[in-house]
Structures are given as structure tokens and as C-alpha cells.
């Protein structure tokens, strides 16, 4: 199995996808305003005609590499290339102002590499246990796991939980439109033929992420950011990383744990990692003013998430955030159903996937060590030109799915909706997760109905009962936190 998996990675098409994904992801991440979500949404239709391993390798390469690249503008121009590099600006840009831009970038690369490799190794170690545990999940257990994902998506948006909940349930509603596949009845079609097949997830994704971002760039003032200078090599950060062993190990562990939990992801992992690093630092006053430990904590945490986020996707078929939700569609197109059976039916495919994740981190770092100065030129692309390119590629991608002008119209409406959400600073991700999790909830609940005599039967199994207990604890903790925050506001 191991030999078969590694041999599959050595195929020419897989290696090509690996290099294109790694290098393309770095470049995309280095361009402020684009990000992995936009790039993956645009490329997604093209991956449907590829071998599943090739397509997923390409998307995973972009996913992981974009975070490496996003650190470059965060450090040099105080503008994160991707949203998850926001905390890197706190200490990266002050270091650039002190003339230590090269040191900051080198630390970001080394911490990202450690976090990426650490999470892949954790995924490999966990796989044998997942292979034993995953088959124990029945329809009711997966339903409760998806319900836990719904709860976590909502409560993780602190201060915007109500908005996130409304948007998530709107996404679940979009999933119900069209002909359902049990009794073949029409739901919310209003006798419109174009609604019979429902809303295509890829069309909605391209609209919410890519087209909305294009609208955002096109409506903003055209600008070419000024950047700090890089002097010296970028290798010394790997030596300096050994001085922060505790920080990088703790932060990477946070990234793995938070990545496994659906609906949490990079933001909370790096927030906790950064806060913990500051709390135990000998010089906490430097955080936010150019502390190397701050860069190490933020970058190692967010780069540990991509591989860990594959755990709930592969084991249960439940995506943790928007990017793994997009990858789920690649599995479905090729009739590879993520879930408990995948570990017993396609073990060599999983080994190949892990190996690709491992190799992609090595390719990214080697590429960055020789091309950082060249990549900094990309930061200076005018925003309106970038927006027009994204809009054109998005509409071409949507039309290529089914050669349907209606899909382009739906994507444009979704793009306008996403643009409004971004202008209001409301989260877009819950809509997508609502569509994906809504499908899982719908299917698994219907499958469970034959075994249910009372509502208690939904949680009478050990796994479903445990997950239900976790849901109750999460909700109690959330409401207690809201009560504490309200009490503090009234006291002040």
C-alpha cells in the first residue's frame, strides 16, 4: 500500500500538479486581494476533468502555498496577502521598518515549513486510528457530527454569531432547492425549469468568493502599494527557529487541533497561539512591535491547519471550512465518497495524498528561497487590472461547467451578494458550509428515519450520544461567555 501510494506521487502528471500548485499558490498568496479561496474557486471546474489525485494535489498545493506567499506582503507592506496572514503584520512590518525585513520573512518561511510538515506527520500518525474508528460511524453519528459542525461554525464567529447563523441556514435553504433524490419531489422550484437541478455548489462558490472579490477590487481606488526592502539572505531564519522551539511546537499543535475541528480553522488557531506565545514570553511588550516569536506563532499555527482540515473531510466527509468544501466536490465528481469506507477501499489513494502534502511543503520552501525578490514585484500589480482578470476567469470557469448562461447569471447574483456581505464585514464562509453541511444533514437524517422510533433514538449510540454531549457543552460555554460579556458591559 505504501509503495503504491508513493509510486502514484512519482507520476509525471501528479508531480506537475504539485509544482504548479505550490508555485502558483505562493504567487497567488503574495498578491493582496486574491487569496487561495478565489484561486481555487476559479480552478475548480478545470480539476473535474483531471485524475482525482492530480486535481486534489493542485488544489492542496494552492491552499498550503498561499499562506507562505501571504506572509510576504504582510511583512513588507503591512497588507496580508491572505486574511489568515493578518496577525503576521503585527510583528512582521515593524521588523521591516527596523531594517529586518529579510529576517522576518525568513522566520515566516521556517515557521510555516515546520507547521506544514508537523501537521502532515500528525495526519499520517492518526490515519491508522482513523481507519479503525471511522467505520464505527453510522448515519446518526455522521448526522450529529455535521450538526456539531453547524454549531461550531456559528459560535466561532464571535460577535457575529447571529449573522453567521442566519447565513448558514440560508446556505442550507439553497441546498434544498430543486428535485430531491428520495421521492423525486420538487422543492422551491416555483415551476421554473432552471431551478429543477438546484443551485450548483461550484457556481455559488465562484460567485461568493471570486466574483465578489473582483467587484471589490474594481470598486476600490486603483493603487500600487509601496514596499519595504529586502537585504541579505533568507536562510538564517531556519537556524533562529531553534531558539523558539516551544513556541513553534505549541503553535503547530494548536493548528492541528483547531484544523481537525470543523468550523474553526486558521483564525482561532493563530489567535490562541499568538496569545499563548505572548503570555509565556520573556518580552511580552515586544509583541505588536516586532517580536520574532509573534511571527513564529502566527505562521506555524495557520500552516498547520490545511493538512489537519483534511481529517474530518476524509474520515466523515464533513468539510471544516470553505476550501475543504470546494475539494469535497472533486471527490464527488470522481465518485470517491469521503467517509468511513474510504480508509478501507482506497488506502493507497490516502497515502498518495499525504505524500503530496509532505512534498509540497518542501517544494514551496525551495522555491521561496530562490525567488523571494522576484515575487515581491508581483505585489505591485494594480488592483483594478487584477479585479478584471479575476472577473473574466471566473465567468469563463462558470460557463465551462455546463455551457449555461443561467449559471453565469446565478454566479453574478451570488457575486453581488458576496460583495454586499464583504462591504458589511459579514462572513461569507457560513453560506458555503451551510450548503455542504445541509446536504449531509438531509441525507443522513433521511437514512436514519427507518431506525428511529423516538427522538431519543438519534443519540442512543455511544458516538452520537458523545457528540450530542459536546454540542450541549459548546452551546452552554457560548451562552455563558455571552452572559459574562454582557455583565462586564453593564458593570462598566
Element order: H for helix, E for strand: HHHHHHHHEEHHHHHHHHHHHHH
The shape is: globular
The fraction of residues in strands falls at: under 5%
The strand order across the widest sheet is 1-2
- How many domains make up the 3D coordinates? 1
Head-to-tail CA distance between termini: 62 Å
The description of the largest β-sheet is: 2 strands, antiparallel
The helix count comes to: 21
Task: State the helicity in percent bands.
Answer: over 70%
Please state the structural category. Answer: mainly alpha
Total E-strand runs? 2
Summarize model confidence as the mean pLDDT.
79
Rg, rounded, reads 22 Å
What does this structure look like?
The protein has 492 residues and is an all-alpha fold. It has one domain. It is built from 21 helices and two strands. It has a two-stranded antiparallel sheet with strand order 1-2. The longest helix has 33 residues, at 101-133. The N and C termini lie far apart (62 Å).
